[in-house]
Amino acid sequence: MAKVIISCAVTGAIHTPSMSDYLPITPEEIARSSIEAAEAGAAIIHLHARNPQDGSPTPDPSVFMRFLPVIKQNTDAVINITTGGGLTMTLEERLAAPMVAKPEMCSLNMGSMNFNISRAGDRIKTWKHAWEKPYLDNTTNFIFRNTFQDIEGIVEKLGKGHGTKFEFECYDIGHLYNLAYCLDRKIVEPPLFVQSIFGITGGIGAEPRNLLFAKETADRLFGDQYVWSVLAAGRHQMAFTTMAGIHGGNVRVGLEDSLYIGKGQLAKSNAEQVAKIRRILEKLSLEIATPKEAREILALKG
Ligand code: KMH
Ligand code: ZN
User: Fold this and answer.
1) Which ligand is nearest to the CA of 167?
2) pLDDT tens digit sequence for 2-24
3) Which terminus of the chain is less hemmed in, N or C, by CB atoms within 10 Å?
């Protein structure tokens, strides 16, 4: 049986500083949390950057360049930079850091969609920063833009230009068909690293039958030309990644996707979530892929 690749999404652009004191914000915190996650078993580190002053998502390459070299020097993990960015960024802003850093891997979001994260702030009574609540509220009228032309443009610039491979973010079944269209048109090349996402409001819901449906659909569309991974938002994170492992898939955890380690219990670090899913997978007799093995499985440039 193939080894399981653990990805860790360290900070993201969904959660805000008021939601957890453990969310890494500064370049130093992002670097430290990434290194700990890699030491705990993550082969891939998925990264966004935040404004060190107030924790708001930033596309500024100079902020990325304050933590990327530190992570590279201290781990062998695959660096995966977001091209989704944050919910207020233009496509050009979203590509700024990947174009400078030219990483081994970037995310590539496979369709335009609603992306409502307003509920993430439901329990917050006092906000640390003025930007947080309007940011969340604005997502009720937000369109996450990823047209076919946008997708092709990103592949041209990063894939064909720099040899970057992609984590194809598929929030719904239709996104798998969008990816199949791109494969058919030779816009993208196998092996495809397909990240099936469950439980984002605007995407497919976190119901177990949907996970099986996504896998069956991907099997039909991509056959042996893809490597499957799963992430689920919030409280569904561990159950869905466990189900993915059982069904031969890879997993993504991290504070971008959930701030919790158990019911009502905030995770104190990214490493804590990596260690938990690793423990679960190893108890199921599954083996964890090293970064070197992940590079082989995904045919990365290394
Ligand atoms: N926030 C996740 C649901 C990206 O960075 O491009 C998906 C994601 C998107 O990680
Ligand atoms: Zn992300």
Assistant:
1) 1
2) 899 999 999 999 999 999 999 99
3) N
